[in-house]
Design brief:
Blueprint: E1 6-11, H1 13-17, H2 24-33, E2 39-45, H3 49-60, E3 65-69, H4 80-87, E4 92-94, H5 96-108, H6 115-118, E5 122-124, E6 128-130, E7 139-144, E8 147-152, H7 156-173, E9 181-187, H8 192-201, E10 211-217, E11 220-227, H9 233-247, E12 251-254, H10 259-270, E13 274-278, H11 284-290, E14 299-304, H12 308-315, H13 319-325, H14 330-344, E15 348-354, E16 369-375, E17 381-386, H15 391-411, H16 418-423
Parallel strand pairs: 1-2, 1-3, 3-8, 13-14, 13-15
Antiparallel strand pairs: 4-5, 6-7, 7-8, 9-11, 9-12, 10-11, 15-16, 16-17
Helix pairs in contact: 2-7, 3-4, 10-15
Length: 431
Amino acid sequence: MTALNVQLLMTGNEVMAGDTIDSNSAYMARELATIGIKISRRVTVNDNLEQLLIELNSMSATADIVIMNGGLGPTVDDLTSEALAVFSDSALQIHPDAKAQLEAWCERRGQALNDANKKQMLIPSGANIIPNATGSAPGIDLQHKGTRVFATPGVPSEMRHMMPIIIERISAKFDLTQRTTVRRLQTFGLGESNAQQLINNGDFDWPNTVELGFRASAPQMEVKLTIHDDSYHQDQERCVQYIHTLFGDHIVGEGDTTLAEAVLKLLQERQQTITTAESCTGGLIASALTQIPGASAAFHAGFVTYDNTIKASVLGVAENDLQRHGAVSEPVVRQMAEGALRKASADYAIAVSGVAGPDGGTDEKPVGTVWVAYGSRNTLQTLRLLWPLSRQLFQTMVTACTLDLVRRQLLGLPKYCRYVDQRQVVPTDQE
């Protein structure tokens, strides 16, 4: 069959102004790719009825399917329902399923259905709704002449719950024989150029049935292996195994696995716990760990000891070491880790103290310097790294690096990844 022409119409003044980053279209494209659909066109417009109608009429001239995102809320600038009514030359009317969903949503929250919410019951006549499992606004499913239009809310979680329904309806309507399968490997410590060079230098006969792609996004890099036919699964598996052999311990896991998730899983398997003592990262390491569901099984406490007096009073860092060596030093970061282990009664600890910048650096300790301590009471390791990056990126990379150091220790892997080898600084006698 001929490939479906699918186009995205993203709406919202906040998106156009840059106040909100459009991650919704990327998610839609990835989900549609699982059934072999590639987006042919994407347009973003303001919350403006005239602009919406121009794009709807333009897209309907060529598109089999248009997926709209945004503009289904209760406020005056939510214009999607009105635009679709004008586009399809139909009247807005209260849809009984939309009404029932809104009433149930209000009842769950113990609040009355107000006039603003009632606007979300209005659907172009002849259209169906897409149930909203988490929010108030139902989606809209409209057929107009040769184009099927699906409208989804701009709230990412609500849109994501609707995409499986949309995909099911598309699959039921069209004969989609091509199925796309993507295997995603998460790595840390390899840049895109290094990864590609390793592949180039290998002697593996890469099959043309498997597409290779990279998505670099600090701190991890994703390797994607894509096939567009179920009969190529064996080729895909051979490529996955080759990448595992080639990249080795730089591979953190598959799918959406993060370093924090990998560390927590290893600790939980061992029935062990971890604690953190942070200065320059301000709690980001603890935050990365606690973002993972079930983190409480392995993470009980973290300490953000930014000021030296707190390092001393909370973690027991010796004041004379703080005065003699400074907060960014091996003795201090080691004592921070030991203090956290003691306070939290944990099995493993991560401690960091550094110069995040943009100010505060010296010749001996320039901006980007960080001392790290990690491990158990009996295996506590320390090292100094230099990561002269922007403050936020510095914190991101230090967070990821420290989690990777613990991951490696738990797995008995070589101590450092490529990044650490490049960033490690051997201390001088003066420090």
